[in-house]
Automatic annotation (TrEMBL):
Keyword field: Hydrolase
Residues annotated as domain MurNAc-LAA: 64-176
Entries under Pfam families matching the protein: Amidase_3 (PF01520), Cu_amine_oxidN1 (PF07833)
Species whose genome carries this gene: Paenibacillus campinasensis
GO BP terms: peptidoglycan catabolic process
Keyword DNA damage found: no
GO molecular function: N-acetylmuramoyl-L-alanine amidase activity
Name recorded for this polypeptide: N-acetylmuramoyl-L-alanine amidase
CDD domains: MurNAc-LAA (cd02696)
Top-level taxonomic group: Bacteria
Length: 242
């Protein structure tokens, strides 16, 4: 069962960014708790662990030590931004990462921007930076900066429950997409796959929960193999031609 580690930034005596009547530590805790609830409520076989589920101070090393000990498969650190300007959403990975981390980062960023589409949020882009949470986490890790606390137009959005919902949905959809999670009681995630085997196009390829499925006979015969089908035992046998 995949384990997702959600790290709400700051907490306790560390408020994070403040402004426009908002404390970053409160906004990110609310987002994180809602992400955990929705992921576990709507998807099969996923467990969400958190660095904190209340207003408590934690050192960065306490967060990554706990996440590394937990055996979590991915880590998402949730923050809000500050520094003025025009505001917007941006996300980070470490400066040198695996392709799995790039996949997680791209899925999260794309799904969050898609969910934010109705709210006119500036896309500041997919970025890499040498940050403790990204460098010291042993699993693929991404940090999201969910709008600017100190930019009035962004702060107003963070006070809008529809924008909070969109941020939650974007994180949930990105994590589910990356891990290939199955919706509870629903059909598996399915998409069309283009498959070229031995220079031939194989029709009717499908991606089901992150795995590519193709009609066996078409694939085997493309390489010159033979397929025998026993309908009684539902067994396909692939052999090299003699
Ligand atoms: Zn922060």
């Amino acid at each position: 069962m995949p384990i997702v580690w959600i790290d709400p930034g700051h907490g306790g005596r560390d408020s994070g960014a403040t402004g426009n009547g908002l404390l970053e530590k409160d906004v990110v805790l609310a987002l994180s708790v809602a992400i955990k609830r929705k992921l576990e409520a709507e998807y099969d076989g996923v467990q969400v662990l958190m660095s904190r589920d209340r207003d408590v101070f934690l050192e960065l090393s306490e967060r990554t030590n706990a996440a590394n000990r937990s055996g979590a498969d991915i880590l998402v650190s949730i923050h809000c931004n500050a520094g003025g300007g025009n505001g917007g959403f941006e996300s980070f990975r470490y400066t040198s990462v695996s392709s799995t981390t790039v996949n997680l980062h791209d899925a999260l960023h794309a799904e969050i921007m898609k969910a934010l589409a109705p709210f006119n949020v500036i896309d500041r882009g997919v970025k890499s930076q040498n940050l403790h949470m990204l460098r010291e986490s042993r699993m693929p890790a991404v940090l999201t900066e969910n709008l600017f606390i100190d930019v009035a137009s962004d702060a107003n959005k963070l006070k809008n429950p529809d924008v909070i919902n969109a941020l939650v949905n974007g994180h949930v959809n990105g994590i589910a997409r990356h891990l290939g999670l199955t919706r509870k009681g629903g059909t598996p995630q399915m998409d069309k796959a283009n498959v070229i085997a031995y220079g031939k196009e194989i029709q009717n390829g499908l991606i089901i929960n992150n795995t590519v499925y193709v009609p066996l006979r078409a694939l085997a015969e493309a390489s010159g193999d033979r397929v025998a089908w026993d309908n009684q035992t539902k067994t396909a046998t692939v052999t090299k031609p003699q």
